[in-house]
Amino acid sequence: MMRNMLAALAGAAIACLSSLAPAAAEPPSIANFLEQTPLVDFALSPDGERLAVLVKRDNSGRVNVLNSRTRAVEHTIQLANDMRPVWVAWANDERLLVAVIVGQFQITATRITFPVARVLALNSDGQNVTTLFENQSRMLRSNFNLAVVTDILPDDPQHVLMPGYRGGDLDLWRVNVYTGAAERVATGSPNTYAWRTDAAGAPAFRYDTNRRGTVVTIYAPDATGNWRRVARVREEDLPEFEPVADGPEAGVSYVLARPEGADRTGVYLYDGRQGQFISTVASDPRVDIAGVFVNPRTSEYLGYFTFDDVYRAYFTDSRIQSHMNGLRRFFGEDASFDILDMSDDRRMWIISALGPSDPGALYLYDRERTHIEPLTPFHPSLAAEQLGASRVVRYAARDGAEITGYLTLPAGAGAGPHPLILMPHGGPETRDLFTYDRDAQFLATRGYAVFRPNFRGSSGYGRAFAEAGYGEWGGRMQDDLTDALAHLVAAGVADPARVCIMGYSYGGYAALAGAAFTPDAYRCAISIAGVSDLIEQARYVIREGDDEEDDYIRRSIGDPRADRARLEARSPALHAASIRVPVLLLHGDQDSIVPVAQSRRMERALRQAGRDVRYIEAAGEGHPYWSDEEMTRLYTEVEAFLARHLPVAAPDAGAAGDQVPAPEQ
Asked: Are residues 604 and 461 in the same domain?
């Protein structure tokens, strides 16, 4: 378990940084879980001598510039009251970049609101302020978001590269950090949403997306400078091919990829000019490589990490690896930590660290002195001792396949059996991690054990494991959940009479399927943005998507025509009469991934069947997670629903609770 090093190091924290939350006897409130540190962002100057701290207060903020060695505040820069801070970075040793939200724009037809974001460039003492793209008044009027930096250009301290729309295309611009003037250096397309450059600052990859933002097409310039398609993947599958760092020469990049014939994602060198893989840099025999370490200023490849239950980091520089091994001993074996920023000489680091039972914090590490001190906890009102303990659980599915999941128990919980929330993740081709999970900890503080299984169909364990879930919505993937429950009951962890199933998106579908197709296993079900009708969901995606997405849906869910009988048999909305337990449905009315019609239909079917259902619709919200206001409402509804239908205190023997009787035959 990750130790709460914030408490151990609190005496060393400087006054201008966030204080630690005291332990509390009462369980943390919903507001405690949603509260985040007012320290929005940190950035080290390239020479490592100064630390910029971006502080948010209500709707405005300030930048504190500190001496990184003494922690003395050198300058305090107050932002205008109508500017909400987003991030801070150093363009060079004297010039800061501060991204701010300066307003809102609402699309009338959909009621969806977009923040209007800009980047200010200013000296570290707050003087000589300019807005980037200052000379492009047309772009300032037409772009919602001009707050993305593609490349800091460390070899050109006067400029950065930024994307911006002009004439309907997302182009790449060289922007002067002293004057704000911008000039276009590359032209995108109406579908372009991002760029990546090489070590020389030249465009190396262009990312285009389909209308729904679910399929990404990646282009690279060939030897003649023409853009050629090198990959086309679903947005969730970017590790199938994702440029991540500059390579050793122009036109060559490090990519996270799964080349044809490979089962697991690895790190490769890729020649964009020739459109081919050059060599394997790193791979893991058990799991996909989850990500890489990259110098945020230079885009230099530093190493990679995996999640084989526990987070593990592997650096190319043995000196850095030695320090990471020391930090592993410091934070604990279960900790997940990352280097978010480092000085150009690699002496000063900003580290993010968290663990299954620790909501995490940012730290400043001086590699020269092997000295670490906290900057801020991510959630100031949460004390680690209030949170539940977590452990890895492996179990055998009914066909013998090994499945891994993560169990969280309430703080101080005895041996059990406990009331259990079975919480399958969304996707389904994503995965849960053995690290801090807000939902699991919220439920654990309410007295419930929580289990998050990585059932077949999950990512992270190779292509074969993910594709084992194709065509298995309501089938093998659901069986893996049922088998998880059987294992936890046999182990004495879960009380078989007190189990609820809850999930978001695909997890919401699994919750409804569990209630419909294994009705004796659960006392209640909670579906958040869940699918209820597989045929209608497949039709929706095929109608709204493109060929790549259509093919994926037909393989992963099924073909609405060819597989109609199977999809009907596994659609909870068509089997509402089989559900005998209370159901809570929550959905955002602007959800473009799983349309709100899915929950509306499920509610209608349950009411027609005379079942116990409560439906909450969040106005203006898309696919979870939602705004703090709506998340407060969600947690409030979930807590009240569980208190009624799955009380922590064991019911009297033979009590029927709130189960709905089966319909008469």
From this structure: yes
CA 213 to chain centre: 16
pLDDT for the residue numbered 108: 64
Tell whether 491 and 627 lie within a shared domain: yes
List of E strands, 531-664: 583-588, 613-618
Rounded Cα gap, residues 592 and 578, in angstroms: 29
Q: Is 319 exposed, middle or buried (0-12, 13-18, 19+ CB in 10 A)?
A: exposed
AA letter at 28: P
Residue (of 96, 97, 100) closest to 116 by Cα position: 100
- What mean pLDDT, rounded, does the chain reach? 89
| Encoded tokens for 95 | 């010039």
Q: Compute and round to an integer the Cα radius of gyration of the chain.
A: 26
* pLDDT at residue 239, rounded to an integer: 64
Strands (E), 549-628: 583-588, 613-618
State the alpha helices, DSSP H only, in 109-261.
Answer: 137-142
Q: Which of 335, 356, 387 is at the close of a domain?
A: 387
Residue 507 lies in a domain: yes
User: Is the model more confident about 273 or about 449?
Assistant: 449
In the block, tokens 């100031």 appear at 380
Whether the per-residue pLDDT at 654 is higher than 50: the answer is no
Residue 528's domain is classified under what CATH number? Answer: 3.40.50.1820
**Whether residues 430 and 441 fall in one domain:** yes
Q: In Å, how far are 18, 501, 502, 654 from 662, measured between CA atoms?
A: 55, 19, 22, 17
In a domain? residue 96? no
Could you tell me if 416 and 504 lie in one domain? yes
Label residue 650 by pLDDT band (50, 70, 90): low
**pLDDT over 70 (residue 225):** yes
Q: What percent of the chain has pLDDT over 90?
A: 70
Q: Residues 365, 475: one domain?
A: no
For the stretch 388-398, pLDDT in tens is 999 999 999 99
Backbone angles phi, psi at 314, to 5 degrees: -135, 115
Does a cis peptide bond (omega within 30 degrees of 0) precede residue 417?
yes
Residues 336, 479 within the same domain: no
Does 14 reside within a domain? Answer: no
What is the per-residue pLDDT for 409? 97
State both tokens at 229: 């398609």
Cα distances (Å, whole numbers) of residue 281 to 218, 241, 251, 277: 21, 14, 17, 11
Q: What is the pTM of this model?
A: 0.87
| Domain count of the fold of the chain | 2
Directed axis angle between helix 547-556 and helix 534-544, to 10°?
A: 160
